[in-house]
Amino acid sequence: MSDTSLPWDEDALARLEKIPSFVRNMAKAKIEKADKEAGESKVGSAFMEAHEAKSMG
Hints:
Helicase, Ruva Protein, domain 3; single chain
């Protein structure tokens, strides 16, 4: 996996900012990894919502 970050749309960035700062970097890395594995080229809020629902069970 590449260490290069994916671009984020504005809505996804706004959602990311709502994540507590002490876990934000870990969450960002996890979201980007899942996004890349899904073949996405940009992180969007819809993908974040789907990933969040999947993560929560």
